[in-house]
Amino acid sequence: MITVFAMISVMWGIGWAMKVPHRVRWGMTGVLMAAVLLANIVLPAGNPLRQATGGDARLWALIIGAGVVIYIYRLGLGWIKTKVAAKEPVVTTPTKTFSDSELDRYARHMMLREIGGTGQKRLKQAKVLVIGAGGLGSPALMYLAAAGVGTIGVVDDDTVDNSNLQRQVIHTDARIGQPKVHSAATAIKALNPWIEVRPYARRLDEDTAEALFAEYDLILDGTDNFATRYMVNRIAVKLGKPLIAAAMTQWEGQISVYDPANGGPCFQCVFPEAPAAGLVPSCAEAGVLGPLPGVIGSLMAAEAVKLITGAGETLRGRLMMYDALYADSRMMKTKSRADCPVCGTSHD
Predict the structure, then answer these.
(1) Per-residue b or e along 178-216, where b marks 16 or more CB atoms closer than 10 Å to that residue's CB
(2) Cα separation of 131 and 236, whole Å?
(3) Tens digit of pLDDT for each residue in 196-216?
(4) What are the phi and psi torsion angles at 52 (to 5°)?
(5) DSSP per residue over 201-237, as a string?
(6) Is the pLDDT confidence value at 325 over 90?
(7) Cβ neighbour number for residue 294 with a 10 Å cutoff
(8) How many CA atoms lie less than 13 Å away from 14 in the CB half-sphere?
């Protein structure tokens, strides 16, 4: 028996030196112990090999059984933790005044005359909801948190997948399999502990969206399907909430501010109808340049900061299009339509 444990120790030592993953080392240990158990069952009493490995199959069966029970227990515990994490949002309450650390953190903002201390206070008091914690949501969430937006909500029903990591930089390899909203919450709380994060691990639907939107000052839409985009627009218009919406595919992205309550068009004014199925392929179907969502998502955060602080001129009434392949950007003026079924006056 001592010989077997010595072999296991040597095997683990070699595995550690060669940086063999834990899972592989445990698997090799299991195979070795199973072989020893089989030898003690099959070989006759008195056999030198059986004697060298303990001579009693019952002892090895007990050891292996204990290992299996511990393994199953760990799997079950991990499953329970995942379920609890998916249901319970990470919510913390920020302070109402700036700490010395915050003043130092936001000093470069406060130096900007368009933001200053007043604008930074508005950011701290603001509540922003981000729909989607994917490609566009990743940079938007990170820069909103870094900018000091006091309360950030994030809605997404998806989990982190290995294929996301080429562009969804808020997530990590270690968090594959986690709900995206909780992965995102972990990242932005690590970036800025002075903010409140509200993760909603669920699909946004008509029944819950209106009540959710009512809690926020500004909505950012980074979703990748038209049905959700039109629904988000309808509810934002109904509640008078400004909407920053963006989209991308392959090498191109676009972004605008839709704000009929302040004289701008809504999303449906600019895009009256969704394109036919298959006409605009998704990123999964057509591919997308990894850094592209970083560009467009950062623009979403910049527009949000301007809307909250009142700085500069936003993209209200303008649609910005960016072509990364040819390093070209274009600006298109947009306007409200009287016959728009969402915000137009002809249907009132």
Answers:
(1) bbbbbbbbbbbbeebebbbbbbbbeebeeeebeebbeeb
(2) 12
(3) 999 999 999 988 999 999 999
(4) -70, -20
(5) -S---HHHHHHHHTT-SEEEE--S-HHHHHHHHHHHH
(6) yes
(7) 19
(8) 9
DSSP state of 257: E
* One-letter amino acid of 53: T
Q: Does residue 148 contact residue 192 with C-beta atoms inside 8 Å?
A: yes
Alpha carbon distance 212, 34 (integer Å):
55
Length of the chain measured in residues? 348
Q: How far apart, in whole angstroms, are the C-alpha atoms of residue 105 and residue 98? A: 10
Q: What is the 3-state secondary structure (H, E, C) of 66-118?
A: HHHHHHHHHHHHHHHHHHHHHHCCCCCCCCCCCCHHHHHHCHHHHCCCCCHHH
Side-chain half-sphere of 329: how many Cα atoms within 13 Å? Answer: 12
Task: Give the CB-side neighbour count of residue 313, counting CA atoms within 13 A.
Answer: 2
| HSE-up of residue 173 (Cα within 13 Å, Cβ side) | 1
Two tokens, residue 91:
């919510």
pLDDT at 166: 95
Strand partners, 333: 318
CA distances for 79 relative to 67, 70, 187, angstroms: 18, 14, 22
**pLDDT at position 45 over 70:** yes
pLDDT at 201: 95
pTM: 0.73
Give the sign of the dihedral formed by CA 31, CA 33, CA 38, CA 44: positive
Q: What are the pLDDT digits (tens) for 227-285?
A: 999 999 999 999 999 999 999 999 999 999 999 999 999 999 999 998 877 667 777 77
